């Protein structure tokens, strides 16, 4: 059976590619003598690889980082294999062989992974040093012991607390400097988005921004330099008039105290619009704020449209997604807000 084209979705995510490009250029400039790469894991932090990667490449990015091997094909549709790095490394011979056959670079995270890579024939790779986060990464001693078997393109580590004025930042920097002094690599990389804002000592040769590419502001130094990129919108499914005493949604958490006009809108917690938005939750129509009424459902939310009488079914409403403000309202991190947006949004 040949299906006709689907009707337009009632959820859409507008991507400001010009803002995305400007954000990369700002972060690249802040990186000084280092070049900025781009973390595009998790479907470019929810923005969408097909929207984000071409824009980032056009802006000047040459290094792209994903977490899983399953994420590679989408990025590979836009850039050369050697420009893609897989942060989870190689956990078995199949992954190592695939990397060798394609030219995609693994980030080796342990002595075990180094062994898998060398047994598969080796070749250009990246290596992660654990500088104090105790998540992924080799010790300096492990890499030094195997360095004669490795062709390290980028030696890297990852900052755990760069978004804070924490003493851990300086301690990690000291460990990474020691690694750079003892381990030969073509390039060295430590800073994420927030790390870029910590200054030149953290930049080395290559920075790896992620969150701030997509509008996240991880440190005050980034304010005024980073623009919003993702603008989610949802369509009105139904308009309804309420009278005093009418109740809305699951468990009747809202009761109208007077006549009002409301809209049922096609977005819910399955789309990342979680119940933690609570009373701070609101959709937007131009300059008008439309408060959420009652509980957010899986696929729908009800908002107060009394002050916008011209709204009708099928109209799209914006979701307030300035990331720092949304994080403050919900208690979610800016990372969570971006990556929670589901696949039902057209991008």
What does it look like?
Helices cover 28% and strands 22% of the residues. With 347 residues, it is an alpha/beta fold. A seven-stranded parallel sheet has the order 3-4-5-6-7-8-9. Strands 11-14-17-16-15-18 form a six-stranded antiparallel barrel. Helix 4 links the parallel strand 4 and strand 5. Helix 1 packs across helix 3. The chain is elongated. It starts with 10 loop residues before the first strand and ends in an 8-residue tail after the last helix.
Estimate the strand proportion.
15-25%
Put simply, the count of helices is 11
Uncertain segments: none
SSE order, one letter for each helix or strand: EHEEHHEHEHEHEHEHEHEEEEEEEEEHH
Give a count of the beta strands, DSSP E runs of length 2 or more. Answer: 18
- Global geometry: elongated
Strand order of the largest sheet: 3-4-5-6-7-8-9
Radius of gyration: 23 Å
> Helicity, in percent?
25-40%
**Mean pLDDT metric:** 97
What's the end-to-end separation, in Å?
Answer: 27 Å
Give the biggest beta sheet: 7 strands, parallel
Which structural category do the helix and sheet elements fall into?
alpha/beta
